[in-house]
Amino acid sequence: MATPAAQQVGAGKKPEKPRKVYKRFQSPGDRLFDLFNFIFLSLLVIFTLYPFLNTLAVSLNNANDSIRGGIYLLPRDFSLDNYKYVFQEATIFHATLVSILRTVIGTIVTVFCSAMVAYTISRPEFLLRRFVTVTFILTMYLNGGLIPNYLLMRDLDLIGSFWVYIVPGIIGVFNMIVIRSFIEGLPEGIIESARIDGAGEFRTFMQIVIPLALPALATVALFTGVFQWNSWFDVFLYNSEKANLSTLQYELMKMLANSNSNSSMTSASAFANSANASANFVTPTSIRATMTIVASLPMIIVYPFLQKYFVKGMTVGGVKG
């Protein structure tokens, strides 16, 4: 005898899906825990976003009005004079271009070279894999120091050149360990099948390992990109006399240093001109806020596109299949 569901199907009607029964009642302890999580996460979001939103509000506020204080989340007197002042500097655009070039080239070179080393020491047939790994890890704890590093860059004829930003960090030990852990978690049969088909080590690395290790590579690329973009101390050490090799972060550092040294004079000038509403000037506070937003905006734009790789790239490699 046909069931009611079968009769409905025979009549051209779809059988009704069983409804899910959700638990509506929670114990007082569960409700208290959910309330605590909501309050804690809400405070965490506020404490995390407020400094950035406050900095953005100050950068978009009139510098004359900012002297009064009391700016929190929204600008009180909206103005783009701070950004006009920053971008009228002739060195800013060239320094930004240098920062973009060092970030892109440095990230690509570092990720590729670190991945090659990681693949090499992940192979069980490589007899010196343990010795090479320990040697790399020791460099994370032992450093020659500032002066020996400077002398090394001088002997390599890298001082005063663009490649001084790239060569010293061509192999990132932490990055290499992350990629190696991920590669070791890949099924060995895939690599063996590529070798059976006649693929060499480099072809296996390029066509098999790299596509499978994209989550780890994207994670390392974000780490390296942020490091390259934010670096300014190496510019100060090696290329401070080369204006054509200055980066955006180094120009930011110089602008902040100059604004701090001239803060009293700038504040006095601000108060003296406060009666004239049409006077356009900036203060150290407005300069700091504006340059911070300008320097951090590219990373804020790129981060959401790579964030999804973080969990997979940092955890999957630690679990071998």
From TrEMBL:
Keywords for this protein: Cell membrane, Membrane, Transmembrane, Transmembrane helix, Transport
Matches recorded under SUPFAM superfamilies: MetI-like
Subcellular location: Cell membrane
Keyword Coiled coil: no
One Pfam family it belongs to: BPD_transp_1
Spans traversing the lipid bilayer: 32-53, 92-119, 131-150, 162-183, 204-229, 287-306
Family listed: Belongs to the binding-protein-dependent transport system permease family.
Protein name: ABC transporter (Permease)
Source organism per UniProt: Paenibacillus pasadenensis
